[in-house]
């Protein structure tokens, strides 16, 4: 009866050993299985200038030209190949060659008669010669992962990334961390326009569901990266570009069904290029899932519309897209006593908390009777988060001549929505309502349903002026100005005992108004085999908060901050396939809304970061590898310390000194023509030099402090690694094993193992098959089996400590992730 579990354990053990071997393989040289090569140089036909970073495709192999425009595709078997060359602003060139020996092929590309979409994001992108560490994902790579899970899950196989899901299966509210930094420190732009909420500073992809189906490519920059628009990047940047020009008309139908009654239906349509100048594209999507967690359901809808005009010197594109989400709340997690404890432990939890949560009989039955991994404390049928977000973007590009071009954009985003909550035995006074007095009795509490609303506007402009006077020099002047106007208010929509509340009354109402201006200048200069890079950015933010907060406190905050963010780097080309680089960057970041309104009698300090990066890249047709070292030195980083204000709201406090020191590796290794291995690894040390922890003392009614030195930064694992082993038994078929290992993560900053997430090792299997049938140009079936060995793990959680009876106690809650589950997809392209 125990044979099956034993086999699973053995297989997992073998996979872990293979994974360790993979890490050793990061430093091994590539092997060659084929015989011949194609090499040459890519130049501008009009002036013979070398085109660095041109894309070269030989059959199913791809390569990039180096700083001298040279390329070398090796390990090719004899046969007939389609050879293609692409470069931004130039017409594609293709030819067919018969390869029976080494070949030299020089390509001279002609400037395009119309502009291309790539110029929209060019000013904020890193290239192969940049002194920056990054990973590019093109549309083909994104489509492999896009089965209906949220966008962070599509990035899970990239270096230093950890993802999590409130509902446990990757649909609904999901989280993303890069190098241990959460979403508030990851700058996200859509076509160069900021997505991060200016107040909370987080990015909520649930508000734009299935957005990946309208994405052409993503660049992930780790660390500070290049100057871009939006809040400062303290962990990384996601630079997302939506659909670009497609010359042929198309229709695509994508349908997915999976575990937990998960459905995804997507329709994409496009006219192709009309009259050589116009394109129109559209998408309509629906995603529904019951979630792994009880009542962790999601109902998500979205659309994307885009129209573009392409001229000889001008390009105009307008994007309109919107998302609407309704997700049942699963953000309370599962108490440790429920997840891992005994019956006695769970009973102690109930006794200790029944005066806090006011358990009803139904709540009590749910706590003791539900499944321990899928428990959700919420039972009210409309305990949901509801939000709609509309985006409008307009881009205009003008090329003055072959050396000078201008990119501009206008944008407007409107968001509105609420989360609804049922509250047991809520105090009238917490909602500004009088108690109910009947004779000699005074009623101070009532059951009620409340809604907390957000209603906001975000608008502005971005621009970049690009000047390329020679092949050795490139200059960019760019910047942006944005404004955010957001209302926060609360309503009571029902109360069992109503004192004086009327429908539509708001028990609190506040407003946040934020301005964000930045201007930056970049220069790249090629000096023989050296590429020198400098980037200077000035940023100014203004933030005003007025009205009342959810605790009925009066707000009157006005803060103006000025930031100077310089960056510099150098890249040295060792040869056509190898380069080394080093960079130094400074970033500054403002506090978020909660930092301002929760801190009593003072203002939080800005955060300051110095980022030192150095790396090595090897890029040939048979082997690609990059290794990067980083040292991120923080001053006044804002972290949770346990400190609370008079309302019990947790405060983030500035800690004087902290750092992240790490080594990353990113390898793509074609073991043969049918077998490919992708590997990533991050080994890091993430420390706070010294800070004071505050713990609620229930014996005294105050807080007790403890000093900690040299502790780990929360949610910053010392090792993160991934492996993707893909086998193609047939030309149109692929079998892939996707593995992810994340070491222990501490849920606070004390390095206390009892307040941590255990390490986890999760494996997925992906099967894909492509064919064609009649009018169907491409028919793809794919099956994604997530967590194939049903690893029991939690990727997120929170902790709370207190003193009672002169003893230190800790209460943990976790977000369990789904055991074995599947997503089955069928994609039709016409």
From TrEMBL:
Keywords, comma-separated and alphabetical: Cell outer membrane, Ion transport, Iron, Iron transport, Membrane, Receptor, Signal, TonB box, Transmembrane, Transmembrane beta strand, Transport
Cellular localisation: Cell outer membrane
Keyword Iron among record annotations: yes
Source superkingdom: Bacteria
GO molecular function, one term: siderophore uptake transmembrane transporter activity
Protein name (record): Iron complex outermembrane receptor protein
Boundaries of every TonB-dependent receptor plug domain copy: 130-236
Cited PANTHER family: FERRICHROME IRON RECEPTOR-RELATED (PTHR32552), FERRICHROME OUTER MEMBRANE TRANSPORTER_PHAGE RECEPTOR (PTHR32552:SF68)
Record domain TonB-dependent receptor-like beta-barrel: where: 348-788
TM annotation in the entry: none
Family: Belongs to the TonB-dependent receptor family.
Membrane protein topology class: Multi-pass membrane protein
Pfam families hit by this protein: CarbopepD_reg_2, Plug, TonB_dep_Rec_b-barrel
